[in-house]
């Protein structure tokens, strides 16, 4: 089945991953800017990173017939450093016009500090100023519930925010209703140990329905699986779901959300073309 | 008792047939982990007050609850439910359970 992996940190994956993703039906990936596993030495490292995400990576994906898109930001793990945030935020507008940039992300919170929230708000302002889609990371583990609540409440209180243009990612059982209930697009992350399994993602889809829900691998340099989306497809079929429902989750929903950016090119499905609303 | 009734497309028997062995293995992995903790160096009382183990044991009670919604309640037991912002980042990574626990007096202490 054809699919879009809406969250994949391909910079940290090998070309073999692109090969296997293409073999399993991947048509497009979107790559949010993220933490490299260590704090970067300065703003110029981000300029180099953004250039990599908008030149080398789309070309590498293209060789396997996969469209590569990206999101730019200073990631939440480094959001505590307000001076670095100011410097990196000043760099981002120079990259926003590049053809594979869909928006600002993955912004959010890590340990839910005052500085992180200020950096999050600065990114939201940048997105609004430039009319960009927003992709949001919610914190890991014990910080997820409070971090999600803090961000959802901050966004819900801002009348300039259209929740249909925001995807809040890494939802789990204790946060999914809160995110959906405020009208945001909601991501379920198929990531071993610290996020959701395919079985739990299917549980949440069964209980809350497919509207505004997507799944993604978030594959990166940690223990993760670049084929997590096709694993989800297999598990959903074993659970008795038909291809119409599964295709909606892995292809049509991400295409609807991403299609709000004029840069996103509709991708073929084998059942016709998925177009934006 | 039912929680989103009928939303799982399989019958209960089909679900057991499909998934019992996998979850039997996961159950035994947790049991073996707790036994391994008892055998580990550091003495019987070494980690009994560890904030992670305490939350883990509380969450285990949810597994035997007759009430649906077990995973959501277990998630909350493993979450920091204090919505106050930290003044400064205390660490780069999360721990899997909250160091901050509420005391019987209603105040909060850091573990």
From TrEMBL, chain A:
The keyword RNA-binding does not apply. GO terms for molecular function: hydrolase activity, acting on ester bonds; metal ion binding. The keyword Acyltransferase does not apply. SUPFAM superfamilies: Metallo-dependent hydrolases. Keywords: Hydrolase, Metal-binding. Belongs to the metallo-dependent hydrolases superfamily. This is Metal-dependent hydrolase. It comes from Deinococcus budaensis.
TrEMBL record, chain B:
It comes from the Bacteria. The lineage of its organism: Bacteria, Thermotogati, Deinococcota, Deinococci, Deinococcales. This is Uncharacterized protein. It comes from Deinococcus budaensis.
């Amino acid at each position: 089945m054809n699919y879009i992996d809406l969250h994949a940190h391909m910079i940290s994956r090998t070309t073999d991953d692109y090969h296997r993703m293409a073999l399993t039906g991947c048509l497009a990936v979107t790559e949010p800017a993220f933490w490299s596993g260590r704090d970067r030495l300065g703003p110029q490292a981000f300029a180099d990173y953004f250039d990599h995400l908008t030149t080398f990576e789309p070309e590498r994906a293209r060789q396997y017939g996969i469209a590569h898109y990206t999101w730019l930001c200073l990631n939440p793990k480094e959001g505590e450093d307000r001076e670095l945030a100011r410097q990196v935020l000043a760099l981002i507008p120079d990259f926003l016009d590049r053809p594979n940039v869909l928006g600002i992300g993955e912004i959010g919170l890590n340990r839910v500090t005052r500085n992180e929230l200020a950096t999050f708000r600065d990114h939201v302002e940048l997105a609004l100023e430039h009319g960009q889609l927003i992709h949001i990371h919610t914190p890991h583990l014990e910080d997820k519930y409070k971090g999600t609540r803090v961000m959802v409440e901050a966004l819900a209180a801002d009348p300039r925010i259209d929740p249909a243009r925001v995807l809040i990612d890494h939802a789990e059982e204790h946060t999914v209703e809160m995110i959906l209930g405020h009208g945001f697009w909601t991501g379920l992350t198929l990531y071993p140990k610290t996020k959701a399994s395919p079985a739990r993602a299917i549980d949440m889809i069964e209980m809350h329905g497919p509207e505004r829900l997507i799944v993604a691998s978030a594959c990166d340099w940690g223990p993760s699986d670049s084929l997590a989306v096709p694993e989800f497809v297999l598990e959903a079929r074993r659970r008795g779901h038909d291809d119409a429902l599964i295709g909606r989750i892995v292809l049509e929903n991400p295409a609807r959300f991403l299609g709000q950016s004029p840069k996103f090119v509709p991708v073929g499905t084998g059942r016709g073309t998925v177009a934006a609303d | 008792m039912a929680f989103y009734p009928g939303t799982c497309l399989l019958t209960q028997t089909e679900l057991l047939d499909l998934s019992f062995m996998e979850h039997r293995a996961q159950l035994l992995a947790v049991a073996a982990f707790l036994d391994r903790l008892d055998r580990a160096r550091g003495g019987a009382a070494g980690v009994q007050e560890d904030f992670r183990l305490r939350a883990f044991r509380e969450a285990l009670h949810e597994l035997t609850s007759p009430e649906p919604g077990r995973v959501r309640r277990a998630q909350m037991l493993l979450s920091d439910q204090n919505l106050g912002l930290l003044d400064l980042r205390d660490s780069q990574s999360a721990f899997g359970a909250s160091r901050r626990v509420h005391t019987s007096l209603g105040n909060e202490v850091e573990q």
